[in-house]
Design a protein that fits this description.
Elements lengths: L13 E7 L7 H12 L3 E5 L2 H4 L8 E5 L2 E6 L3 E7 L5 E9 L5 H15 L3 E10 L9 E5 L2 H6 L3 E2 L8 H11 L4 E9 L8 H15 L8 H17 L2 H17 L7 H15 L51 E4 L1
Parallel strand pairs: 1-6, 1-7, 7-10, 8-9
Antiparallel strand pairs: 2-5, 3-4, 4-11, 5-6, 8-10
Length: about 325
């Protein structure tokens, strides 16, 4: 039985979750939830028992000193709550942790137990994947759901993905079977610059979340960090003619595919966001459609033409040479 002592009655609560690991290219999703927690000064009210879900040889605990006393921080998943003010206040339940090593069904059931006790009306799970997308263009963010009615009502894609999946896909399906509305937002991270952090992808996820749940999210230094990130990648690409050529190929493909998106709904969405930030107030307008997509937006196999992050877990990566046209996926205690 879940006891939530000290947690006040929440207003129109939405659960926003992200998990480090396979579903979190460039740490974009987990950084987005950490940003919300930091900006709104979230207070942790619960943590899942690390013993139940984590292999400590895969995700090792860390030892640290607190006033000369040795303590251990265990890898786990924590829940915090924040209140979003404005004309239409609402609460967010933030879930941030590491993709569990075992017992995924029990893990999801425990999170759903919290959602039920807190009266959560919608679960939004953030994820990021490696994709064939150029760093010079807006980050594609797709919104997907398994619920046909929710897809139509919130102008989302109904997922058709089949294949290997991560905890994001499992949690979304658990919500669907439990009758809890659930959405996954996926940002596509350029696979040729996959090392974290990726503030541009984090910013794109937060913008899409802002539209989806109808709140104004303070962005802090993220826009400046995103610009600095892009300048840095521009400089790296300029030093390698093969990388520069590959980026140009991705740009041409992206511009051709998304030409219709440059008008209509996309412009309206950006204008609504501009008005919301200029006024410094509450939301303007309702949720809008996804800004783009990717074949593996369910978080499964990265597919052909992309790299698995295990192939090069850190550092700058070299893209495959483009094919020629003709040849043509805390718990603290004393030690």
């Amino acid at each position: 039985m879940i006891e939530l002592e000290g947690v006040p009655e929440l207003i129109d609560p939405v659960m926003v979750a992200a998990f480090e690991g396979w579903n979190d290219a460039g740490d974009a999703a987990s950084t987005a939830v950490a940003h919300l927690d930091r900006e709104w000064k979230g207070e942790v009210f619960a943590a899942l028992d690390a013993e139940d879900y984590y292999d400590f040889q895969v995700n090792r605990p860390t030892v640290w000193l607190d006033g000369g006393v040795r303590k251990i921080t265990w890898p786990t998943t924590r829940l915090s709550v924040v209140r979003v003010g404005g004309d239409k206040p609402r609460d967010l339940v933030l879930v941030r942790g590491i993709e569990p090593s075992m017992r995924w069904r029990s893990f999801c059931n425990e999170l759903l137990g919290f959602a039920h006790e807190l009266g959560v009306e919608l679960v939004v799970v953030l994820g990021a994947l490696l994709g064939d997308t150029p760093h010079t263009r807006p980050v594609p963010v797709s919104g997907v759901t398994s619920d046909p009615d929710l897809a139509q009502r919130m102008d989302l894609e109904e997922t058709k993905y089949e294949g290997p999946t991560g905890i994001v896909g499992i949690l979304q399906e658990a919500c669907t079977h439990a009758g809890v509305p659930a959405v996954s937002l996926w940002a596509a991270v350029p696979h040729y610059v996959s090392q974290p952090p990726n503030p541009k992808a984090t910013l794109a996820l937060l913008n899409r979340l802002e539209d989806l749940i109808d709140v104004r999210i303070p962005l802090g230094e993220l826009p400046e960090d995103a610009r600095a990130w892009q300048v840095g990648v521009d400089q790296l690409a300029a030093e390698d003619s093969e990388v520069a050529e590959y980026v140009q190929t991705l740009e041409e493909a992206r511009d051709t595919a998304e030409l219709p998106e440059a008008s209509g709904e996309a412009i309206a969405r950006e204008f609504e966001r501009y008005l919301r930030r200029r006024d410094g107030g509450g939301p303007a307008g309702g949720p809008t459609g996804p800004a783009g997509g990717h074949a593996t937006a369910d978080g499964g196999d990265l597919g052909s033409g992309t790299w698995n992050p295990k192939d090069n877990p850190g550092g700058r990566t070299r893209p495959p040479k483009p094919q020629r046209p003709e040849t043509e996926g805390e718990d603290s205690s004393e030690d």
